[in-house]
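Consider the following input, taken from an annotated entry for Glycosyl transferase (Acinetobacter pseudolwoffii).
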Amino acid sequence: MKKIAVVIPACNEEAYIERCLKALKSARLYFFQHVGKLAVLPEIKILVVLDSCTDSTASKVQQSGIQTISCHFKNVGKARHLGVQHMIEQGCDWICCTDADSFVQRDWFQVMLQHQPADVICGVVDLDEWGHLSTLARQTYLSHYQDKMDHRHIHGANLCFKAASYLQVNGFQQLDCHEDVDFIHRLEKAGAQIVWSNQLRVTTSSRLSSKIAVGFAHFLQKLELKQAAKKPISLCK
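Applying the prediction step yields:
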């Protein structure tokens, strides 16, 4: 962890991107204030991949002083891969992924350091709001979700890994959804050392609409439709 990168794909996320970046800046500052004695302090770079944005997302990111690159994929797998490749080419050896509608907890970077050595760390997510969800949806979600160490949840909103491990399995594929799950499954097959941590935490939006047809919002919609008990739910984030 000599040079850390955070990669955030964003497609029309003007409602959430400022919250996301504010939390990352706060976590970066907290890390440098509490990291203790290290021979060399790592750099922490943040990159937003602007994918087909037509709203004010780009201007809000630019006003925050965060680095951006642009693409017109409308594909989260391709956008993530572009961002990760870009940061690896800049010499980053530890890559962190989160989402524009999510915000990391203050000790996010510190927890990553505490979990070393690791090839990959898979964290957990909390929902930012429950008020618009039914009691049944909340109960079903909480009974499904394993908020514990050695869980097996995979979230693109809370995922970090060695650059070398990413390159070993050819990174994220060009998938509209589940690019994170596909990536981790390939790393598992390759024998990567994976830490499944509930100490690494990110809060994510509980919105019920999204650009991704079968993403996390779709998962919550299925809970609202009371389909959770009838068939397996595929959790994509």
